[in-house]
Specification:
175 residues
Length: 175
């Protein structure tokens, strides 16, 4: 089943990176982005700020720490789903396969349990809510056009800084 998530080729990888970037922006996580590089190994294409990897601080209340961890978990789920959706819905003009969705749900549940202590139902609720919102995003013709252009830019330029990404994707604000 893990083969379902592996990149088939460079185009697939570029669309995956484009999807993760778009998903991060849709969920207002742009401040967490440092850069995107399609030359990086598959799990490291998105370079995120240290704030994303926040694990706690004894000077901050437990509830603030948990909310931060929960928000960052939500961004992880959004990037994971966006990666799959952009590759299938935009690149392949197809739906995300049910078996891929199942693997994504399993990964989200594992990460939610370890990052925030969420149970399976809580992870599933967040996943379903995020999936529904991103389905609407990647089903939008304007977003698909932007994703095609951005994936092409990534393929040509290989590495984009946060500011270059924001400049390339500024058109999303008008959709």
């Amino acid at each position: 089943m893990e083969n379902e998530l592996k990149y088939r080729n460079e185009d697939d990888k570029c669309y995956g990176a484009a999807g993760m970037t778009i998903g991060l922006l849709v969920f207002n996580g742009d401040k967490m982005l440092s850069s995107v590089s399609v030359d990086a190994p598959a799990g490291e294409m998105m370079e995120l700020t240290d704030d994303f990897y926040f694990s706690g601080n004894p000077q901050i209340s437990a509830s603030v720490v948990w909310r931060t961890l929960y928000q960052n978990f939500g961004l992880s789920v959004a990037m994971m789903i966006s990666n799959a959706m952009c590759r299938r819905m935009v690149l392949d003009s197809a739906m995300v396969a049910p078996e891929v969705r199942r693997v994504l749900i399993e990964r989200a549940a594992q990460e939610g349990a370890s990052a925030c202590g969420l149970d399976e139902d809580e992870c599933r609720e967040m996943f379903d809510r995020t999936y529904t919102q991103l389905f609407r995003v990647f089903n939008h013709r304007g977003v698909q056009s932007v994703a095609h252009e951005f994936a092409g830019t990534l393929k040509r330029r290989r590495h984009l800084s946060r500011f270059e990404v924001l400049d390339e994707l500024r058109v999303l604000n008008s959709l």
